[in-house]
Amino acid sequence: MADRVGADVRRVLEQRNLFLKTEHDDFGKVVYVCADDGKPGGFPVGHVIATAGGRAWLAYARVPKGGVHDIAQVAVGLPTFDAAIRTVLAHARSADILRAVERGPGAAAKTYIAVVDPAHAEWLTTLEEPQGITHLGGGRVRLTEAAVAYLRTPPTPLSLYLQVQGDELVVDLVPYKLTRDR
Q1: SS3 of 64, please?
Q2: What is the CA radius of gyration of the chain?
Q3: pLDDT tens digit sequence for 64-83
Q4: Whole-angstrom Cα distance, residue 150 to residue 92?
Q5: What contacts 157, CB < 8 A, 6 or more positions away?
Q6: Stated pTM of the model
């Protein structure tokens, strides 16, 4: 059973502050994807299980269900361990997971302010994802910790380049300073 991830998946795990944890139960080996939230064992994001003697994989991830999050099967028959981990990572964008990664253990909720070009501010507030961006007027935008964590490793580019790098919000290759609001 080849349980290795490729360089791209390793990079995403590192960028999102996630790690893999292996356990054995009555059914065999289970590999958990966890957010490093500073607590022992981390914050569980999902897990993968080998089937058919390691020739196929099942993937489980945290998904929203009726206002809460629950672990649910999200894929069956995946051909590789790498593909199974990728599937879990594709679901690891829920606000509760992102907050656990961005917020340190025992820390209070954070928001950030950036003063951006007014056109960028308008565009940011039209995005479906990430949630948690509010236009305050005059080019000022407030981002929740979940929005900032999401933008640290955003999905494929939107109509404009958008990413958080360190303490800067980069919109269309223009960096804007992120300042902690509260």
Answers
A1: strand
A2: 18
A3: 776 667 788 999 999 999 99
A4: 10
A5: none
A6: 0.59
CA dist list (Å): 46 to 35, 49, 102: 10, 10, 18
Return the structure tokens found at 84: 């199974």
Residue 137 has pLDDT above 90, yes or no: yes
> Closest Cα to residue 17, out of 47, 50, 39, 48?
39
Amino acid at 102: E
Residue 130: enclosing H or E segment and its boundaries?
none
Residue of 59, 50, 62 whose CA lies nearest to 85? 59
Instruction: Identify the helix (H) or strand (E) that includes residue 128.
Output: none
Residue identified by tokens 């051909």 is: 79
At 28 the three-state DSSP class reads strand
